[in-house]
Amino acid sequence: MNFIFRGDELLVRAAGIELPDASVCAFLGIRIESMQPLWHLPESPYRSIHVARDIEPPSGYAFRKLRALLPELGEQAALAGRAFQIAEWVRTHRFCGVCATPMQHSTRELCLQCPHCGLHAYPRISPAMMVLIKRGEHILLARHARYATARYTALAGFVEAGESIEEAVHREVAEEVGLKLRDLRYFGSQSWPFPHSLMIAFTAEYDGGEVRVQEDEISDAQWFGPGDAIPNIPMVQSIAGRLVRANLPPGARLVEV
Questions:
Q1: CA nearest 243: which of 185, 194, 170?
Q2: Which of 152, 171, 221, 225 makes an SS bond possible with 142, Cβ 3.0 to 4.6 Å?
Q3: According to the model, what pLDDT value does residue 149 have?
Q4: How many CB atoms lie within 10 A of CB 130?
Q5: Which family does it belong to (predicted)?
């Protein structure tokens, strides 16, 4: 199974989601042995690679945004996400970050290592927290300022060096909307390959403060309660979408606008 990426796009059949076979790889000038196995198993049937942004798809195929494909991929979505992260790791670690020597693949594990200074580089994972704040029968949803098409969702942010996940939750909420929390409860986690996040989701109870948005991060934040129309929440394939849907106020209506 061959995952060929062009930026954040995946090559699939134009009339479906079938992945390219060896003949398509050959047409694009890709040698199977040059593709990265998704696991440290020489016989692994799953491989991935990034190609140049000017590569055009062969007849009958198309490059489609991976994010838009997730609902169609179903059970293969997690596999495609891993393939993207592995391909991105190889693409961005061709040279040692210490001495600039070309990196080599380890023969013992999924790792790139420098033959000159010995630096080891493993696939990157960036932990990020997500929290849905509840106040009685109301929930707080926000739109992020950096994305023109952003949906209303739970608050989220990356964990900083030296922080615990819980500390990151309290800090991000204080920074982005000026609120205090209590009763932090774990909801679930999900690998999110944009480009290499691990989303760790919580619910929490409101414990004080007035909503005051950090304008460079949040364009809007609102409390939604029973019977309210809630616009444009994330897709159900994402942990954000599941988190919001699992905590909708009674009678709340999801509305696409």
A1: 185
A2: 221
A3: 59
A4: 26
A5: Belongs to the Nudix hydrolase family. NudC subfamily.
Q: Where are the alpha helices (DSSP H) in the chain?
A: 22-27, 66-73, 77-92, 165-177, 239-246
Using the Cα atoms of residue 195, residue 176, residue 221 and residue 247 in order, give the sign of their dihedral. Answer: positive
Distance CA 182, CA 204 (A): 6
What pLDDT shows up at residue 148?
54
Crossing angle for the helix pair 66-73 and 77-92, to the nearest 10 degrees: 150
Q: What is the pLDDT of residue 32?
A: 87
Neighbouring-strand partners of residue 42 = none
| Per-domain residue ranges of the chain | 2-92, 94-124, 126-254
Residues of the chain where predicted confidence (pLDDT) is lower than 70 = 42, 147-149, 257
Q: Quick one: fold of 126-254? A: Nucleoside Triphosphate Pyrophosphohydrolase (3.90.79)
Between CA 141 and CA 151 the distance in angstroms is 9
pLDDT of residue 44: 78
Residue 229 neighbours by CB under 8 Å, 6+ apart: 252, 253, 255
**CA–CA separation, 241 and 71 (whole Å):** 12
